[in-house]
Design goal:
Elements lengths: L1 E5 L4 H10 L4 E5 L11 E3 L12 E4 L13 H21 L4 E5 L25 H14 L2 H6 L3 E7 L1 E3 L6 H10 L15 E3 H13 L6 E5 L7 H12 L10 H13 L6 H8 L7 H7 L8 H14 L1
Parallel strand pairs: 1-2, 1-4, 2-3, 4-5, 5-6, 6-9, 7-8
Length: 314
């Protein structure tokens, strides 16, 4: 298959390239023009009309969620909404038959109400990241009648936190903290959250591209099992060959400490404490049913272990 990947030099794009290079002809679209030996050519946004005929577009390019809240709101909408509209309009005019947009579970909900999050929830994003993603989704969905007439398929994916080799997000930060040998003080929080390994994500996206029996729609993507932060700490220590030290300090004390640390601009502020201790469990049943599988290729623990091994070696 001939596939155009936007944001190909990013974390997800780089991993998809490594996984697909032997099976597909890949083209890139990226602000970063660093060449890749496994990609036929990387174009910039001004060269859309020069891209050869392709079968599918995987739209990864976007402004990532900034947990430090240092990004300006217009930047999120210019990139996550504006660029998505531009590349989707190009898709409608192109010969490509499939479009895969990487949205986010944060476009649906900042917090999960109930046992787990499903695609049927009424989207209620909080903040410019989720709001800009849901606005892009709405634009794509507004063209449903046209894409149906053209017999094109459109998939909106809402992955939860993606991890894998080259990931520099919160999991990487957590790894560095544990590596320092500091006891984990948040053991009293009984939380569970979903993750998405790059291997499972790559599998899902490739299936959407190569198969013709999967209906257009919105699909959440994540690993099968949710993990607690305490389980993550144990897995990190296991990968480092260290003894796990988990302290169950009172939650009230930790909430107060996070407020003080935030005022002093230290790493553990209230927002990061919430991220580390909240429940955020996502259902992947819809995408598994569409693919006709009972479980994802890689378990949550196997995926985390692979990511941690890449931190250790990298």
């Amino acid at each position: 298959m001939k596939i155009l990947i936007t944001g190909i030099n990013g974390f997800v794009g780089s991993n998809l390239t490594k996984e697909w290079k032997e099976r597909h002809l890949l083209y890139g679209l990226d602000i970063n023009q660093t060449p890749k030996k496994d990609v036929s050519k990387i174009f910039n946004w001004e060269e859309l009309n020069e891209i050869p005929s392709i079968d599918a577009i995987v739209h990864l390019a976007g402004k990532a969620h900034d947990t430090k809240n240092e990004s300006e709101t217009p930047e999120y909408f210019a990139v996550n909404t504006g660029l998505t509209q531009q590349i989707f309009d190009y898709f409608l005019e192109s010969d490509a038959e499939k479009f895969i947009f990487f949205s986010s579970v944060k476009a649906a909900a900042e917090k999960v109400q109930g046992e787990f999050l499903t695609e049927e929830v009424l989207p209620m994003p909080v903040g410019p990241y989720g709001e800009s993603k849901i606005k892009a989704e709405k634009y794509i969905l507004s063209k449903q009648e046209l894409t149906a007439q053209q017999q094109k398929k459109v998939y909106i994916l809402r992955p939860c936190m993606i991890h894998g080799p080259g990931n520099k997000g919160n999991l990487n930060l957590l790894y560095k903290v544990v590596k320092m040998g500091i006891p984990w003080p948040l053991g009293a929080y009984d939380n569970r959250r979903s993750f998405c390994s790059i291997d499972n994500l790559s599998f899902v996206v490739e299936q959407l591209i190569v198969r013709e029996d999967i209906s257009s729609g919105i699909y959440q993507v994540c690993d099968d099992e949710a993990l607690s932060t305490n389980e993550l700490i144990r897995l990190i220590n296991d990968s480092l060959g260290k003894k796990t030290m988990i302290w169950k300090l009172p939650t009230g004390l930790m909430n107060f400490a996070a407020g003080v640390c935030g005022a002093l601009h230290l790493p553990l502020d209230k927002e990061r404490l919430r991220k580390l201790t909240e429940n955020y469990v996502v259902s992947n049943q819809k995408i598994k049913s569409a693919l006709g599988i009972e479980k994802m290729p890689v378990s949550a623990r196997e995926g985390i272990k692979k990511t941690l091994e890449s931190f250790k070696n990298g």
